[in-house]
Amino acid sequence: MHSVRIFRHYMRVPLILLAGIEAIIFVVAFQLSVHLRWWFIDIESTSEPTGLFIYSIVISLIFVLTMGATGLYEASLREGLTGSLIRITLSLLLGSLVLAALSFFFPLLGLWRSILFFTVIFSFILVVTLRLIFFYFNPSIFKRRILVFGDSQLANQVMIASQKRLDIVGFIPISEQRVNNQIKVIEHNKPLIQIAIEVQADEIVLAIEDRRGKLPIEELLECRMSGIQVLEQQSFFERELGVLKLELLTPSWLIHSDGFEHGLMTMLIKRFFDVLISLIFITLLWPIMLLTAAIIFIESGFRHSVLYRQLRVGENGEPFEVIKFRSMRIDAEADGRARWAVTNDPRITRVGRFIRKTRIDELPQIFNVLKGEMSFVGPRPERPEFVADLTRKYEHYATRHRLKPGLTGWAQISYPYGSTEEDALRKLEYDLYYIKNHSIFLDLLILVETVEVVLFGKGAV
């Protein structure tokens, strides 16, 4: 399995080697920074070489620990390269704060701010370069090796969900059904632990619809005790696709799984950033909003309002009025019946088509964020008519209202624009994942990926 046990935690050898290489990078980055600093002020270094080397080891250790703390030495970085870049940035900033605190409490260390700055810059460039090389020439280092145990139909779903992220090393069937030819079928004619070792599996995914009498509990327990992760299918989809599959969702799974932790400090930090970003956006984007308002007013023949207010369902089911730039005709719902927006919707005006594509129509919602009715990141706010219908049909739909709705969200960047009830349910799976795993890091990742959505018009109607 190319794994070793360190302090009772199994780690893959390639990732340990990666940590070792990056530790050397941090040492080199510090040494370069020290010599660059003395070269700038045009004098010779008075520091002892031995002392500098010990200091560089300490800095390297701190940065490796913060890299590990942000999950950069795990084999299941589902966010891919974008998530890795964010984690690298955060880990270096965290390490810098730790080093700054050490310098404050131990002045004899004498760490100059300029040296720390250059160390971070050099480290970021070198670590990102190294990670890019691994991502493009040896991506398997960041892939877990998966052994699937169960029904072929569910095994096919697992393979489709993970074909780009993981290595499916084999499938152990429990029935005679045919399985996708791309998966290697393995007979269960020997102990499961032996099979897992032979195929070097890191994890076993249980793809079984009816488990009664079909699970080899003792063998699975032996695998788990040997350091091989055993995942239920719902947990697998949660990790790999960022969804909670509705057909697999059970009360017992929700009760025993982690997540749904919305601490006071997290919510205060989230609110602080909502207000801060709102004020920054208003300061920077007011010319665009003013120009958009003028164009909409001209297109309407100077007769109609440029803003559109519509009732939506917010946090804890409380209704509020969302504010948007008008992008549809004034008689879009003249009969009073709520309708989903669809692709090439004839109700959208010429200006409306552009501002919807570029998401400019949603800029006035910044004021909803300032008022505290919305957040920058959260589930999309839906109309009361749709919410009432979907809540009546699906028991978990109301769960999406446990957090403030957002201008952008996990569902918005992960799934195309929805115009049907089925689309709403698929987006609900992403919303449930976000609510369960909500964190400041996830919000940051969503905001970064939203830039791609806006630039390339993904998901817009």
UniProtKB/TrEMBL annotation:
Pfam families from the UniProt entry: Bac_transf
Key word Acetylation present: no
Residue stretches in coiled coil: none
Molecular function GO terms recorded: undecaprenyl-phosphate glucose phosphotransferase activity
Chief location: membrane
GO BP: colanic acid biosynthetic process
GO cellular component, as recorded: membrane
Cellular localisation: Membrane
Keyword vocabulary terms for this entry: Membrane, Transferase, Transmembrane, Transmembrane helix
Segments crossing the lipid bilayer: 12-32, 52-73, 85-109, 115-137, 275-298
InterPro entries given in the database record: Bact_transf, EPS_sugar_tfrase, Sugar_tfrase_EpsB_2
Keyword Transferase: yes
Bacterial sugar transferase domain sequence ranges: 270-455
Membrane topology: Multi-pass membrane protein
Family according to the record: Belongs to the bacterial sugar transferase family.
Protein's name in the database: Sugar transferase
Taxonomic source organism: Chromatium okenii
Upper classification of the organism: Bacteria, Pseudomonadati, Pseudomonadota, Gammaproteobacteria, Chromatiales
